[in-house]
From TrEMBL:
This is Tetratricopeptide repeat protein, putative. Signal peptide: none annotated. Pfam families: Fis1_TPR_C. PANTHER family: MITOCHONDRIAL FISSION 1 PROTEIN (PTHR13247:SF0), TETRATRICOPEPTIDE REPEAT PROTEIN 11 TPR REPEAT PROTEIN 11 (PTHR13247).
Length: 103
């Protein structure tokens, strides 16, 4: 309501603070929308430009973390599959348990 009925200065402030708040909540795509809307009104604002670059770098970092997690999970699954195959090759049909490993 304040955004729709406030003056132009107040609207810019609301957009900036919404961008800051959503950045702190790690809702980067929403924060980027707010800061881009702010920059359309005031493109030369240095704080907003810095916040935009911070949001973009954090989005990139979160994306890399996500890819690392997926890669680690894939590596773990492939390791388990490999272990299963190795054990299956050593198993003799008709025996009740898997063979013991001798070192």
């Amino acid at each position: 309501d304040l955004f729709h009925h406030g003056d132009t200065q107040a609207r810019r402030d609301y957009l900036f603070y919404l961008a800051v708040g959503t950045t702190k909540l790690k809702e980067y795509s929403q924060a980027l929308k707010f800061i881009k809307a702010f920059l359309r009104v005031e493109p030369a604002n240095r704080q907003a430009q810095d916040l935009e670059s911070t949001i973009k770098s954090r989005m990139k970092m979160e994306g890399m973390k996500g890819m690392a997690i997926v890669g680690g999970a894939a590596l773990a699954v492939s390791g388990l599959v490999g272990l299963g195959i190795a054990l299956a090759k050593r198993w003799v049909p008709g025996t009740p348990t898997l063979p013991s490993f001798r070192v």
